[in-house]
Design a protein that fits this description.
Blueprint lengths: L4 H22 L16 H10 L1
Helix pairs in contact: 1-2
């Protein structure tokens, strides 16, 4: 599936806040405090949250 530019921007705008919500709700990884931007995030730490999703 190929997203339009607008749809891709919307996806990434919603992706990290959704992962942040899941992490806070289920306390999956306490090391992740606030996922506001992809910069500086360790993909290995975020992986557990993605797997829960």
């Amino acid at each position: 599936m190929i997203l339009s530019t607008g749809d891709a921007k919307l996806f990434y705008k919603l992706w990290l806040p959704m992962l942040d919500y899941l992490n806070k709700k289920y306390v999956i990884n306490e090391n992740l405090k606030q996922m506001e931007g992809a910069e500086g995030l360790d993909t290995n730490e975020v992986k557990a949250v993605v797997e829960k999703l």
